[in-house]
Design a protein that fits this description.
Layout: H1 10-29, H2 40-50, H3 64-79, E1 86-87, H4 91-108, H5 112-120, H6 126-145, E2 154-155, H7 158-177, E3 186-187, E4 190-191, H8 204-221, H9 227-241, H10 258-275, H11 279-287, H12 291-309, H13 323-340
Helix pairs in contact: 1-8, 1-9, 2-12, 3-7, 3-8, 3-11, 4-10, 4-12, 4-13, 5-6, 5-9, 6-10, 8-11, 10-13, 11-12
Length: about 350
């Protein structure tokens, strides 16, 4: 199989990881938030804000990267005959896992990709997040050994596979129809940030173009988080562009509460594992017709909105008022799901 698809080989996956790492630094250089060139959880939060699902004024923007990941994957899947509409594997459970993953990630302030980017930028606080992510994934491995499964997906009508890409096309249409207007926080139905992370973004064509390429390459390689080599490439790129600043204090869009950096990512990591992939991989699968992955992505969008509406999301000053409670409740729900769907339950 790898002879026909070199991107599916180990070398191919490493190359795709390197492309993502360099692309993230490129987007930071041209306007995306520091140490947040690409962050699925943060960008879905921004989209939720752009749609008015939450009203945190500093994180509202329709991020072209998320749209590009899905449409790039869709385009490649159609080109190589791998667009296969499927789903029906415990969709409500996947939606809940998506919500929990977003809430946990926003306590830490980053998805697995941003964890690596924060490390590459010298943010020592990300070490706690990485440790939590590893522990969360280890928890998922424990359940897999117990026979954990959300059930098999089945072939579905082509319309089911097209719905999520069409939602992305709708977001793209809204973005183009109602662009940001200088000095106004709202353009038609969309909201835009004029300060904070939501106001920092690379030019649309660059963000969207890079995301299309990443989506296409990731679809071919079956890419999920590939840490070490991408981390190395991101560190090198950061050093070359002057973006590496080692330390714990005064890091971009980060807080120094080590315990909740760790526990937030334990919860998020376990949710990712139980759902079957990191948030980026879920978007790529949604692009190739997997409606279960699309349901997880929508769960993350809703969870990100809830994180701000319910005061669980962190900021540079620390965790949200109810971030600790939300993290622990999410962890308990993940453990319940893990045991309930294990054959050895």
């Amino acid at each position: 199989m790898n002879g026909k698809n070199p991107f599916a080989s180990t070398a191919g996956i490493i190359v795709v990881g390197a492309v993502i790492g360099v692309a993230a630094i490129l987007l930071q250089k041209f306007g995306n938030p520091a140490n947040m060139g690409i962050c699925v959880a943060c960008f879905e939060r921004d989209i939720a804000g752009g749609l008015g699902l939450h009203r945190a004024a500093i994180v509202q923007y329709i991020r072209p990267e998320i749209i590009g990941f899905v449409l790039g994957s869709l385009g490649m899947a159609l080109a190589v005959g791998e667009f296969r509409p499927r789903g029906g594997s415990s969709p409500l459970v996947r939606f809940v896992l998506g919500m929990i993953a977003a809430i946990g990630a926003l306590v830490f302030l980053g998805c697995p990709w941003r964890t690596i980017l924060r490390l590459a930028g010298g943010d020592g606080n990300a070490l706690f997040g990485l440790a939590g992510l590893v522990c969360g994934i280890a928890g998922g491995t424990f359940f897999f050994k117990r026979g954990y499964s959300l059930g098999s997906s089945v072939k579905q009508n082509a319309a089911a596979g097209w719905l999520f890409p069409l939602i992305m096309l709708g977001l793209l249409g809204l973005y183009l129809a109602f662009p940001q207007i200088s000095g106004k926080p709202q353009s038609g139905p969309l909201f835009y940030s004029f300060s904070g992370p939501g106001s920092a973004h690379a030019p649309f064509l660059l963000s969207f173009g890079v995301a299309l390429v990443i989506g296409a390459l990731a679809q071919r390689s079956r890419f999920c988080t590939m840490g070490a080599f991408r981390d190395l490439m991101a560190i090198v790129a950061n050093m070359l562009t002057g973006g590496f600043h080692a330390g714990f204090e005064n890091q971009p869009v980060a807080h120094t509460d080590g315990l909740w950096n760790f526990l937030g990512m334990v919860t998020a990591g376990l949710a990712f594992a139980l759902a079957g992939g990191c948030p980026g991989r879920q978007l790529f699968m949604a692009g190739e017709g997997d409606s279960d992955a699309a349901v997880f992505a929508l769960g993350m969008l809703v969870g990100a909105a809830m994180a701000h509406n319910l005061g669980t999301a962190s900021s540079a000053t620390g965790i949200g008022a109810y971030g600790a409670q939300a993290t622990l409740i999410g962890l308990v729900i993940c453990l319940f799901i893990g045991f309930a769907f294990s054959k050895k339950a």
